[in-house]
Amino acid sequence: MAALPGVVPSDCHLSVEESAGADWDPFVRQSTGASLYHLSGWTELAREVFGHRTLFVKARQASGALIGVLPVIQQKSRLLGNFATSVAFYNYGGALTAELEVARQMMIRASESAEKLGCRYLEFRDTQCRPVDWALRKDKITLQLELPETFEALSKRLGAKLRSQVKRAEREGVRCRIGANDLLDDFYSVFAENMRDLGTPVYPKRFFEAILRRFEPYCQLVVIDWHGEPAAAAFLTFWQGRGEVPWASCRAKAKPLGLNMKLYWELLCLSVGRGCTLFDFGRSTVDSGTYRFKRQWGAEPVPLYWYRWERQGSGHEASAGDGEGKGRVMELATAVWQRLPLPIANTIGPLISGALPW
After folding, report:
1. Would residue 21 count as lying in a domain?
2. More confident residue, 258 or 328
3. Has residue 104 got a pLDDT over 50?
């Protein structure tokens, strides 16, 4: 679908560059509504780890002052072709600006760049409704829980049933460890096994190494040990009073013992301890199993607005990932992947996961 015509405000200049520049991150840090993933380093990780092309759309006043940013990651693969996302691999992206028209114009400029690069589509993972006449996905939401100031208040709010499930795990003699790089191997061993069980190629470990190298002050790893081995693990981030868990996993044999419940209890307590007022359970598909798991903690659904620009003449191809035929192929691929021996899945997965539309 063609972009909507529009006129850039007379005092606003748009540019698309391959580097963020010195004023990008200061602008993000002072902007209302910014996510951690708007910081330039998260987009640069896609180039550093996977070799993807990255674009930084900027809006400036005539004075040169930055008033809007929009990060874009282009991905290519033989299976899925050429496409772009703002931003891939993470829960949030999209235009960041206080001006609605500037946001729209940055999206249009980004779509023009995507078209020049031959992309079939460009997806904007936004948290706001935008005035663009493009396809909008409404099946994705995030689940968020307002946090009290104390552990005692948190425990009381969660209720007796959840507390009993956490205590069930604690009776197994589990141990909780909190760290960063020192826990990466243990986190990854749980994460990789869980991804195989889900039928999804796993990220390479160097992806998480790169995140911790750039953003360790914003990150925390949590590992739950059972019988001396890691059984549940999570990657936690912090940003402007918000704790978020973009990646969490539990070994299948540990779930009946409630170790996944113990893991999330520790994540919530850690966030309260750091003074967070909100906990973000990450995105989910409405009414999925993960959606229901997160809802039991009292988390409330918050809509996400995923807009998609599609190149003219490629609409059928660009939408194929949502079609019935492609859906059956993906179901088959998932079933096959789930049956792979773990060493094989962990060898092949990191080679192809960077090209998937996460």
Report:
1. yes
2. 258
3. yes
